[in-house]
Design brief:
This protein has about 290 residues and is of the alpha/beta class. Helices cover about 35% and strands about 20% of the residues. The protein has one domain (about 5-285): Rossmann fold. It has nine helices and ten strands.
């Protein structure tokens, strides 16, 4: 596996994914009872945005991607509350890491997003397959209360961790999509997860590349479950020369009110993160609520 997220940290896809992830976590915390947060492809947890040169593939001259992501929101005013909540959390993390605040320097990955809002009764489990990244993750989180780090195939995490003793769970599946069989692996993991714990919330991030592939994936997911499922999509460009035009998040068993957040949040993200006039956002129920 060659993927390293450091070069992409804080880009438009991270903004989209983490703003929605935060709202899923907030929704679960409306109830006092604790829950399990399971991250199947956790990465290293934190990224230094101003030191991305080491993350650029050898022989390639590329700019970091965060200025067109979190960089566009950093000084923005009049953000909707949902998006303001996310930016405030990233700013707080940046300060915790010792940054001066003039521009973003440190960006939290999904493990830190969950850690920053975790209550004492909530439990966090992070899986990461790459030993180097898992080592960094374990060093940062391995001794924290009600937090564990596993180095291994994250798809196996659903079998290992579900059903949870808390009887409540949010599972984030966010793979690098390097393997041609990634979609099949996601579907197999979801099938196992739903068999073991049908009431869990399952959030799956995926890139939007070819439209046919995206629609095929959604159709396969629809055939997999009868549980309420919603999808949200952000495209920052319509340029046919750009392979990855956007990204999507599918959520099985979304918490009450999550779709309302999509309706207010997605158009703002499309406007603020647009690369060209072809930027769009949309959402719909894949499997409607009963």
């Amino acid at each position: 596996m060659n993927y390293r997220h450091a070069f992409h940290a804080g880009n438009y896809a991270d903004v989209f994914k983490h703003a929605l992830l935060l709202q899923l976590l907030r929704a679960l915390q409306r109830k006092e009872k604790g829950f399990l947060y399971l991250d199947t492809h956790a990465g290293r947890g934190a990224y230094e945005l101003l030191s991305t040169s080491a993350a650029v593939p050898s022989g390639k001259n590329r700019r970091p991607e965060w200025p067109e992501g979190i960089g566009r929101l950093w000084h923005a005013g009049n953000l909707p509350p949902v998006l303001g909540d996310y930016v405030a959390l990233v700013r707080d993390f940046d300060r915790r890491m010792g940054a001066a605040g003039g521009q973003p320097r440190f960006y939290p990955g999904s493990p830190w997003i969950a850690t920053l809002v975790r209550r004492p009764q909530d439990r966090l489990v992070f899986w990461e397959q790459q030993p180097g990244e898992a080592g960094v993750l374990r060093e940062e989180f391995g001794r924290r209360r009600r937090t564990s780090v596993e180095c291994g195939d994250g798809y196996g995490a659903l079998r290992a961790a579900l059903p949870p003793p808390e009887h409540r769970a949010l599972v984030l599946i966010d793979p690098p999509f390097e393997d041609p069989g990634e979609v099949d692996a996601i579907l197999a993991a979801l099938r196992e997860g739903l068999r073991r714990f049908p009431g869990g919330i399952y959030a799956v991030w995926h890139p939007v590349t070819e439209r046919a592939q995206t629609e095929t994936f959604r159709a396969a997911l629809k055939a997999l479950t009868r549980q309420p499922t919603v999808w949200a999509e952000l495209a920052v460009t319509a340029d046919p020369q750009v392979r990855m035009k956007g990204c999507s998040l599918l959520v099985i068993n979304p918490p009450w009110g999550f779709a309302d957040h999509l309706q207010s949040l997605l158009p703002v993200l499309a406007k603020m993160l647009a690369v060209d006039a072809g930027a769009t956002s949309r959402w719909a129920w894949l499997v409607p609520e009963q």
